[in-house]
Write a structure and sequence with these properties.
This protein is of the alpha/beta class and 276 residues long. The protein has 11 helices and 10 strands. Helix 8 (200-209) packs across helix 9. The structure holds nicotinamide-adenine-dinucleotide (NAD). Nicotinamide-adenine-dinucleotide binds next to helix 10.
Length: 276
C-alpha cells in the first residue's frame, strides 16, 4: 500500500497530503464508499456536518478496525450553527454521528462575512481545541482579509485554510496569504469536478506518463505542496485517484498546468456568499 506523504501543521500535528472527500456522497452510500476508500488505503477523510452523511462515514470507520490514531478525520461547522452561537454543540453532534471522541481537524466551513460572527466562532474553536474535542482547528473559504481579522482577534492561528483550488482557479493571492500566516492550504474540488480533464497540458502529461487526467491533476497538487481529497463513488476511480505515487511530473509539465488559470470558479465566491 502506498505511503502518503504528510504535511506538518503549525500546531505540530501531521496530516496525510492525500485524502478522500465525501461531499455529495448520498447518506445511504457513505458507509460503502468510505469503506472502499479505507480498503484502498486512504486514511484522511474530509467531511462536514452540512454534507449530511457523518453517520455513514462513522459506521465505515468503526467497521474498518483501523486504529483511531492512524486516521485523520475532518469535519466542519456550518454557518447557521455558528451564527446561532452553537459551534460547540455542533461539534458534539458531529462527534456523536461519527462515533468519535475527537476529530483531527475542525473547520469553520464559510466565513459568511456580512457580519463577523465567524470571530466568535473562532473563540469557540480555540476552546474546543484546548478541551481536546479537536486536535487542530482551521477555516475554509477564508479570503486574506478574513484571515487578517482572525489573526488580530484570536490567540491561535488557523492550522488550515481549505479553499477551491484546481488548475482553472488557483487563488494565488489566497495561497500566498496562507503562507504568510503559516497556514497550510487544502484544495477543495481539486479536480474541478472533471472540468480540466480535456485541457491540453493535462492530456499531454497523461499520455506521456500512461496515467489518467485525474491522476495528473492529483500529482500536480501534491508536487505543488497542497493537501487534497478528491471525491468519487466509483471503486475504480477511488483506487486510481490513490495510485499516484509511481510517477512524477516534470517542472515543465507542472508549469504548463499552472498556466491553465482562468478564474474558473465552480462554487460561490466566499467574499460575496453569505448563507445564514
Ligand atoms: P472533485 O474536484 O474531487 O471532483 C469530483 C468529481 O470528479 C466526481 O464526482 C466525478 O464526477 C469526477 N471524478 C473523480 N475522480 C475521477 C476520475 N478518476 N476520473 C474521472 N472523473 C473523476 O470535487 P468535489 O467533490 O467538489 O471536491 C472534493 C472534496 O472537497 C469534497 O468531496 C469535499 O470533501 C471538499 N469540498 C469542500 C468545500 C468547502 O466549501 N469546504 C466545497 C466543495 C468541496
Amino acid at each position: 500500500m502506498a505511503t502518503v506523504p504528510t504535511i506538518t501543521l503549525n500546531d505540530g500535528a501531521t496530516i496525510p497530503q492525500l485524502g478522500f472527500g465525501v461531499w455529495q456522497v448520498p447518506a445511504d452510500e457513505a458507509e460503502t464508499v468510505v469503506a472502499e476508500a479505507l480498503k484502498v488505503g486512504y486514511r484522511h477523510i474530509d467531511n462536514a456536518a452540512v454534507y449530511g452523511n457523518e453517520e455513514g462515514v462513522g459506521r465505515a470507520i468503526a467497521a474498518s478496525g483501523i486504529p483511531r490514531e492512524e486516521l485523520f478525520i475532518t469535519t466542519k461547522v456550518w454557518v447557521s450553527d455558528f451564527k446561532a452561537g452553537n459551534t460547540k454543540q455542533a461539534l458534539r453532534t458531529s462527534l456523536e454521528k461519527l462515533g468519535l471522541d475527537y476529530v483531527d481537524l475542525y473547520l469553520i466551513h464559510w466565513p459568511s462575512p456580512a457580519d463577523e460572527a465567524y470571530l466568535d466562532a473562532w473563540k469557540a474553536m480555540e476552546e474546543m481545541q484546548a478541551e481536546g474535542l479537536t486536535r487542530s482547528i482551521g477555516v475554509s473559504n477564508f479570503l486574506p482579509e478574513h484571515l487578517e481579522r482572525v489573526a488580530e482577534a484570536g490567540t491561535v492561528i488557523p492550522a488550515i485554510n481549505q479553499v477551491e483550488i484546481h488548475p482553472a482557479l488557483q487563488q494565488r493571492d489566497c495561497q500566498e496569504a496562507n503562507e504568510r500566516h503559516g497556514i497550510a492550504t487544502q484544495a477543495w474540488s481539486p479536480l474541478a469536478q472533471g472540468a480540466v480533464f480535456e485541457d491540453e497540458p493535462v492530456v499531454a502529461a497523461a499520455e506521456a506518463h500512461g496515467v489518467s487526467p485525474a491522476q495528473v491533476v492529483i500529482r500536480w497538487h501534491l508536487q505543488r505542496g497542497r493537501i487534497l481529497f478528491p471525491k468519487s463513488v466509483t471503486p475504480e476511480r477511488i483506487a486510481s485517484n490513490f495510485d499516484v505515487f509511481g510517477f512524477e511530473l516534470s517542472e515543465t509539465e507542472l508549469a504548463a498546468i499552472d498556466g491553465l488559470e482562468r478564474d474558473g470558479r465552480t462554487g460561490p465566491n466566499p467574499g460575496e456568499f453569505n448563507p445564514s
